[in-house]
Amino acid sequence: MSALHDDPLLDLPLGRVGASGEDGPFLRSRARGRRRARRGALHRLAIVVQAAGAIAVAVSLLAVGYGRVMSAERLRVAKVDVRGQQFLSEGEVRELLGRALGENILGLDIAKLKDRLLASPWVSDATVRRTLPDGLQVEIRERVPLALAELERLYLMDASGTLIDIYGPRTAGFDLPIVRGLGGTTGEARRARAERAGALLADLGDLGSEVSEVEVEDSGDLRVVLRGQGEVLRLGAPPYRERLAAFLELRREIVARAPRAEYFDLRFRDRIYAKQQPTPEPTPLPTPRVAIVRPAPRPPAPVPTPADTPAPTVPDAAALPSADLEPPAPTPTPSGTRPEGD
User: Fold this and answer.
1) pLDDT digit string, tens, across residues 218-228
2) pTM here?
3) Which domains, from first to last, does the chain contain?
4) N-terminal to C-terminal alpha carbon distance within the chain
5) How far is residue 208 CA from its own chain's centroid?
6) For residue 128, which of 109, 102, 107, 104 has the smallest C-alpha distance?
């Protein structure tokens, strides 16, 4: 044979494939693959059915267990531990929490409880934790009032410029400086002014007790009125505490050197300037009118009465002119007598 016929790869039968009634090797492999695929699909379907049944059983068991857990009396909230409050009472905090007592501790919405606490203007931040099996731990951080904001009414205000509560009988125990200059503004403008005043008082710390009033000017500068003699200071940018401490240290000397100062300017580094009030010009006095005082008339001299004045002496007849004399009256003669010489 030639080399061509010696190659086993080319030694193929010349007859028709499958003529003897038997499938070729390739067709038998395909048939076996289809049977195996059908068996694999049925096996996978059985696995899916079994898994679905197991899941259904597990879900039903979980539902039953969840129902029992949620209805368990042992897991109902029976106590609330409140911490961190200063102004608010424990009862007020419980009221903010709402109907937490008696509810199942696992079914409580912790985020919703925190939102309820933050709805109070006194609460700056809050934390709520579960303490199994039947307790809640609540920790709050209150806002700290630093001033009384003057609007249509007086409001307690903190360092961030947030209005906390109306100043009234319940909050009358707070002795705080008054912040002016917020009226007539709204929105962001008012908030910016309040934040500026709050930042000043927060920076002063314990020195804030020396401040009586804080006024936020349109320029953004701060006008501070001190307690006591009421000196007026003008402040610009921080540091506020350092500048106020320097003024308080030299307060007597500065006031003595500028007793008529309108305000003291602390906006410059290492310098304090006194704005003196202008010297008032002397006001001319009106020309006085000369009043002529007339002496009171003297009363007439008293006329002496005969009892007080001695009788005047009658001069002799020979000493007075005859014409001024009257003839003497005749001397009466006693009756029954005759004059001598008859």
Assistant:
1) 999 999 999 99
2) 0.60
3) 75-142 (3.10.20.310), 147-276 (3.40.50.11690)
4) 258
5) 14
6) 109
